[in-house]
Amino acid sequence: MPALLVRFRTYIRCLPAPDTVYCLLRPLRRRQLRDAMRSRRHPVAGAHHGPPSRPAPRNRLLAALPPEDLATLWPQLKLVELPIRQVLHAPEQPITEIYFPETGYVSMLAYMEDGDAIEVGQIGFDGVVGIPVLLEGDSDGLEAMVQHPGTALRMSAAALREMLASMPTLHPLLLRYALVHHQQVARTGACNGRHGVAERLARWLLMAHDRTEGDTFPMTQEFMSMMLGVRRAGVSVAARLLQKADFIHYERGQITVTNRPGLEAAACECYGIVRRASDRFHGQHTGASRLACQYGARCQPEAGS
Questions:
Q1: Is the pLDDT of residue 127 over 90?
Q2: How far is Cα 69 from Cα 198, in angstroms, rounded to an integer?
Q3: Residue 148's beta-bridge partner residues?
Q4: Residues 6+ apart with CB under 8 A from 160
Q5: For residue 249, what are the β-bridge partners?
Q6: Burial level of 200, CB count in 10 A (0-12/13-18/19+)?
Q7: Which residue, 78, 76, 73, 51, is CA-closest to 62?
Q8: Which end of the chain offers a freer environment for a tag, N or C, measured as fewer CB atoms within 10 Å?
Q9: Strand 87-89 relative to strand 97-111: parallel, antiparallel, unpaired?
């Protein structure tokens, strides 16, 4: 056996092996290296040597995909932060990226010529931002703005178009969601034209509460007035009424839902109509509303469950 002299005040014997060469400093080290080599040549039964498993998606649309389709889609997705008031796509501008929110939520805003905006829809972990791409469009007349900070899985619009053409389960699923979101937008328009500010505020707070992970979330009266398309004074009166009834607590830009059933009773019927449509859609794919409850949305027990 050859011996190799190195400049570390010792001799090291190097021994050839079938797949490597290892050098010995002392018998204990020799046994350790020999055992390691044996384990590489003869892996332990049941040992996992592949890449680490990916985390389960918190977005309900992605969670509804078959595992093999999700595995195909996953390399195109990147987890990103969604800071408050970040614009994900602007009106009439090309949509280049698609977002599957995991936490937080996004407001879909319609702007008037004078610059005022009103919210016509919300998208959280129940949906996807970039719906026109699903319908072979490349832009939207609405602005998508982050209203509550969180995270999302992002992919390019070009990659999604390729996946829609090659993945038979993805396109129908997203189209059915687009229909549910359309119902939300249409109902919001009807609600804004027919119902009082307090009822609309209760509906809007319930929608926000569904998409947050706790009972408290940041919100100012200025922001609420923009979301509802009413003057700040009207929002202030409506918020005081809900707080006086002990349905919410509002202080220093923070709203806490303190009585969810009471807030639901104060809201107009529009909230229940939109919520039931969403639950029917997601229940078809993700096991009713349990997944929603797990990730933050508040759910009522279904009949017979």
A1: yes
A2: 44
A3: 105
A4: 76, 98, 130, 133
A5: 256
A6: buried
A7: 73
A8: N
A9: unpaired
Give the amino acid at 101: P
Residue 23 has pLDDT above 50, yes or no: no
Distance of alpha carbon 19 from its chain centroid, rounded?
47
Residue 144 CB-density burial (10 A; 0-12 exposed, 13-18 middle, 19+ buried)? buried
Given a cut of 90, whether residue 33 has pLDDT beyond it is no
pLDDT by residue (tens digit) across 141-179?
999 999 999 999 999 999 999 999 999 999 999 999 999
Residue 53 has a pLDDT of: 59
Strands (E), the chain: 3-6, 10-16, 21-24, 78-82, 87-89, 97-111, 117-123, 143-156, 216-218, 248-251, 254-257
Cα separation of 60 and 288, whole Å?
11
Report which of 1, 21, 20, 19 is spatially closest to residue 11, judged by C-alpha positions.
1
Tokens representing 162 are: 């390729």
Residue 263 and residue 265: Cα distance in Å, rounded?
A: 5
Q: pLDDT tens across 214-255, in order?
A: 899 888 888 888 888 888 889 899 999 999 999 999 988 899
211 has a pLDDT exceeding 70: yes
Q: Count Cα neighbours of 167 within 13 Å in the Cβ-side half-sphere.
A: 22
